[in-house]
Specification:
The complex is a heterodimer of chains A (about 180) and B (about 290). With about 180 residues, chain A is an alpha+beta fold. In chain A, about 30% of the residues lie in helices and about 15% in strands. A 5-stranded mixed β-sheet of chain A has the order 2-1-5-3-4, covered by helices on one side. In chain A, helix 2 (about 85-90) crosses helix 5. Chain A is globular. Chain B has about 290 residues and is an alpha+beta fold. Chain B folds into 3 domains: about 10-55, Uridine Diphospho-n-acetylenolpyruvylglucosamine Reductase, domain 2 (2-Layer Sandwich); about 60-175, Uridine Diphospho-n-acetylenolpyruvylglucosamine Reductase, domain 3 (2-Layer Sandwich), CATH 3.30.465.10; about 180-285, 2-Layer Sandwich (Enolase-like, domain 1), CATH 3.30.390. A 5-stranded antiparallel β-sheet of chain B has the order 4-5-8-6-7, with helices on both faces. Chain B has a 3-stranded parallel β-sheet with strand order 1-3-2, covered by helices on one side. In chain B, strand 9 and strand 10 form a beta hairpin. Chain B starts with 7 loop residues before the first strand and ends with a helix. The chains are: A alpha+beta (about 180), B alpha+beta (about 290). The interface of A and B includes residues 21 and 42 of A. Chain B: GO terms for molecular function: FAD binding; oxidoreductase activity. Chain B: InterPro entries: CO_DH_flav_C, CO_DH_flav_C_dom_sf, Diverse_Substr_Oxidored, FAD-bd_PCMH, FAD-bd_PCMH-like_sf, FAD-bd_PCMH_sub1, FAD-bd_PCMH_sub2, Mopterin_DH_FAD-bd. Chain B: This is Molybdopterin dehydrogenase FAD-binding. Chain B: It comes from Nakamurella multipartita (strain ATCC 700099 / DSM 44233 / CIP 104796 / JCM 9543 / NBRC 105858 / Y-104) (Microsphaera multipartita).
Amino acid sequence: MQVRITVNGVEHVNEIESRQLLVHYLRTTLGLTGTHWGCDTSQCGTCVAWLDEEPVKTCTVLAAMADGHRVRTVEGLADGATLDPVQVGFMAEHGLQCGFCTPGMMMTARHLLDHDPDPDEATIREAISGQICRCTGYENIVRAVRHAAGHPSHPSDAAGADPATDGDSAVVGEPSQEVPA
Amino acid sequence: MQTPAPVDYARAHSVEQALDLLDQHDGEARLIAGGHSLIPMMRLRIAQPECVIDINDLTELDYIRVTGDHLSIGALTRHKTVLASPVIGEHYAILHDAERVIADPIVRNRGTVGGSLCQADPAEDLSAVLAALRAEAVIRSRTGSRVVPVRELDDGPYQTVLEDAEILTEVRIPIRPGAGSAYEKVERRTGDWAVAAVGAYLVLDGGVVSDVGIALAALGVEHGCATEAEDYLRGREITDQTLAEAGRLAAAASRPSPDQRGPVVYKRHLADELTRRALRRAADRAQGRI
């Protein structure tokens, strides 16, 4: 069947099998391997991306169900060369170890901060409670989200420069520090 | 990679269209909304439908409204909507208790009330809650609709009394003055199925129980209700002694299976303890103490 799905602002038209899962559509059909694939059963949350305005576990959504809808993946977090504050926070606070859960964690964090710009620790822990960090590095993940809190998601549009998110060469200038995709 | 078997996909834009599609596939199609249960079952080939019928566009079934002496929840209402609803919190604290522990926030974004009920998982939280509340399920077919008590909706594990070409469209819950409710669950970790859980609903009249519902999840009770404990409590006051007897009766009615979540003796203990806790909290809420 044919699907028309807008992923990170770009419309894609593809012929797919109707049994294809959204996580595999993103990874294999589109080559967007930032969305990771973990437990298969909605438990681990590694595959979280946004369907329209909300995080979903893409291992339990058929790609066909996203036909006509918008998807946002971790590849759509940065604004050009400027990383999202959540990505900056994960680097600044060592919010990732092996990096496997990181893309899903960041997509959930971005959604949380869009709706609650100043969440306390309990709120952050509740928001990410459906996602498993295999390194059990939750302390730093929570700190990373706190780090990002209060920073606008599109600093280029915001009044005033923010050294934590605007053109910090230590953040965006070194490929080795880029968030793993 | 676990992948579902080849399957057709259809998207319904109205209840009538979904019913037509179900009819065309003669029992070989499955409705899909949240998908968190059906898709894993399809990957394991436990379920191999010919066609999945996507009902996420049936926004006509996404509502919460008070009508006379009952509250109606459309089958496509998401768990997050139930959890955020002030009118539900006002009348049924038990629903908010349960929704806080149903899976996790991301699953609750997409999972639906109707999907939870129709999955008929013996450990499912909402089925126990609605059984305790003596809710009714509205079921539609091409020829009309019928109403089934939620307590009679399941026909064994993972089976319901719905016919092949029927859709659960709504649950209706009576609103009663003097009522209080609570849900107590023990789980291994956030978002897991219950090791054991108990929902309690009490209507108090001058301190005496005039009506009561006690439902047990994951405890192997037919239709999930502790009817002996309910019968015992009706007409009595809630005291330490009556709570102890209700807990004992609920545990005695339980037939849990030993599994990775614990042995029988532990689950029976939970049935007893959680029944007393849920009833105590329901009584406190009915009397405005919390």
